[in-house]
Design brief:
- GO terms for molecular function: DNA-binding transcription factor activity, RNA polymerase II-specific; RNA polymerase II cis-regulatory region sequence-specific DNA binding.
- This is MYT1 factor.
- It is found in: Nucleus.
- By secondary structure, the chain is mainly α.
- Helices cover 74% and strands 0% of the residues.
- It has 2 domains: 33-99; 110-163, no CATH class.
- It has helices at 10-19, 23-29, 33-109, 126-138, 146-159.
- The chain is rod-shaped, with a radius of gyration of 50 Å.
- It starts with 9 loop residues before the first helix and ends in a 5-residue tail after the last helix.
Length: 164
């Protein structure tokens, strides 16, 4: 058997050096009781802050979900409104075409009838002509003389065939 000295063993050398530490060095390397208490308070404070942040995050997530729901509802409403507007536009276009057809039929029917102080009906004076006609029929008592009665009767006969 060979004998070895402890001085040649690395573990023994480290253990020996470790044993040579002074008391102050040992106190500096180990936690003091006051350090442990301070760390405990810091940990409690950090845990409270983490808890507060988690709660805040939960509230924010709930608010976000609610906001996403509201946005989704608004998007659906907007889509419905757009579809309704499209339908209304199509109806307006159809009504415009119908009105245009009625205007042309009225112009053709009244082309030979002259209202007092007016040119024959045309697209250019159509609105003024219709306003004059409306006034004549609204205030028929002002147009009681025989000439105007004949004019009103001619107008009635001229527009009789227009389909509305």
């Amino acid at each position: 058997y060979l004998l070895f000295s402890l001085s040649g063993c690395p573990r023994a050398t480290f253990a020996g050096k470790k044993g040579k530490l002074s008391g102050d060095e040992i106190l500096n390397t180990k936690f003091k009781t006051s350090d442990v208490l301070e760390n405990d308070e810091e940990i409690k404070q950090l845990n409270k802050e983490i808890s507060d942040l988690n709660e805040s995050n939960s509230e924010m997530e709930a608010a976000m979900v609610k906001l996403q729901s509201q946005i989704s509802t608004m998007e659906k409403n907007l889509k419905n409104i757009e579809e309704e507007n499209k339908i209304i536009e199509e109806q307006n276009e159809a009504l415009f075409l119908e009105l245009s057809g009625l205007s042309q039929a009225l112009i053709q029917s009244l082309a030979n009838i002259r209202l007092p102080h007016m040119e024959p009906i045309s697209e250019q004076n159509f609105d003024a002509y219709v306003n004059t006609l409306t006034d004549m029929y609204t205030n028929q008592e002002c147009y009681q003389n025989p000439e105007n009665k004949d004019l009103l009767e001619s107008i009635k006969q001229a527009v009789k065939g227009i389909q509305v």
